[in-house]
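[Automated response] Your request has been received and processed.

Submitted sequence:
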Amino acid sequence: MFLTMGFVDEIYQRAKKIKKKILLPEGEELRVLTAVDYILKHDICVPTLIGDKERIAKIAKDNGLDLKRVEIIDAKKPRDFDKYVDLYCEIRKHKNVKQKDAKKVIKENIVFYSALSVRAGDYDGVVAGASTTTRDVAKAAIYCIGVADDIRTVSSSSLVILPDNGMGSKGAFIFADAGIVPDPTAEQLADIAISSAKMARLLLDEEPRVAMLSYSTKGSGGSGSSIEKVKKATKLVMEKDPDLIVDGEVQIDCAVVPEVAKRKDPKGRIKGRANILIFPNLDAGNIAYKLTERLGKARAIGPLLQGLRKPASDLSRGCESQDIVSAVAVTALRAQG
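Generated structure:
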């Protein structure tokens, strides 16, 4: 069952206008096929599946799904295989990867084939993770799509949409990092904040306002390695992007509640109106977005991999079909550049 919210509907409508080609390599997963049925009916983008055509046809028939218009790449004999082997060898030549090794990796990891298809320009983006670990999706994206020229850290963010639109950007937030970097350095944390601001500029209706989160607000927690890291990262972000509204270190209540910000941090830059939340480590980010999703009844789209040459999105293995549709739509939007 698909329930839509105003903010998500807007993303779907924006994606429809640009008709990007998005590759979904987990083509024999029912949740993916249900999502593709919805995508086709609502003309959100041009999806392509990878899998066994006969098995996909049977799953579709058994579940009343109409997939007649979708392109399906045979996972056993994927087209352009040799071209992607050559491409992988070229990309990984600094690791002295040989043809036989490249063939083995790509045959055994269909997400590598998918990421190479995007790197080659044959598809505009890839969405995977319904039955593949985040580690494998991220590895394929980093090795095959590659890191963007203007950033050094590949990370992830999640678009989190609350039922109450009084916070963030009409209820929408970017949470980062929620899936990739376990314990970022101050330099990595600064990269994550800048990448997340780019994501926010594309997806949110308002100017990015970044909160560098901590258990302390402007020294209230004393000193400690975590606090010092967040303070240093905040300074680096300000140096790299002077026009970006960013502040830290701040606690979450100070970041999102104006009344609390007036008391705790009256001279702060975001004044309780943050729409981007940067967490000090992966534990905090992952717990926060899943907690907000499950207990706060929020919609969470992602993790969205950022800092890559071209767009790729991970999925939680606990995702539902609607989550996949949303991730595909966001990936299509990101592909417009």
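Summary generated for your ticket: The two ends are 31 Å apart (CA to CA). Residues 134 and 201 are 25 Å apart (CA to CA).
If you did not submit this request, please reply to this message.
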